[in-house]
Amino acid sequence: MGGRKREEFRKFIEFKETETKIEQISEGRWKLSQTNIGSSPPGGNAMITVRDRFLIVDEKCDYLVTEYFGSGKTGTVTGTFVWAKQDGNWYAKQGMQMGGDMPLCEWTIDEISFDASKCRNSFDDLETMIPFATCITHLDEKYNELSKKYKGGAEGEAEFRLRELAKLKRLKEEGL
Fold first, then answer.
1. DSSP secondary-structure letter at 27?
2. Residue 90's pLDDT band (boundaries 50, 70, 90)?
3. 123 near 130, Cβ under 8 Å?
4. In a 10 Å sphere around its CB, with 0-12 CB exposed, 13-18 middle and 19+ buried, how is residue 16 labelled?
5. Could you give the count of Cα atoms lying within 13 Å of 95 in the half-sphere of its Cβ?
6. 80 near 89, Cβ under 8 Å?
7. pLDDT digit string (tens) for 62-78?
8. Mean pLDDT, rounded, for 123-127
9. Which of 71, 87, 102, 136 could form a disulfide with 76 if both were Cys (CB 3.0 to 4.6 A apart)?
10. How far apart are CA 152 and CA 155, in angstroms?
11. Percent of the chain beyond pLDDT 90?
């Protein structure tokens, strides 16, 4: 929602160049929206201009974001979260993100523990569970890329490129 992989919620509502409109949309649900922003949010990437965006928060889950939307020069992005609480901790049980009409990411957490001593499985076999041609990126604590690879090695990378070419062809056909 501003060219960053993580944007603090506080920065959304403190963006002074554009007024944040707050409206109650249903019992306990609030929409925070900004329109005609015209420039990148604080700390954002100047190459990605966000024009309109909104967040929907729900007081039932301690005002966590349940839906979001952003549109601008590079298209639109939308997403939803379903929150659950376990051991006094909130976590995103389900989530989905769309880029325009194309799904970008979707997940469901079936089992979780906030006590590391209760974890039964290691994550060493994570690559066996992800789909072929999935991009695996390792980041440091500042979100700088340490390494990147694709499941399936050279074949995975070739598949990934084919998917990208198909995406570009589809966008061209749609006139975007």
1. T
2. very high
3. no
4. exposed
5. 16
6. no
7. 989 999 888 887 788 89
8. 67
9. 71
10. 5
11. 23
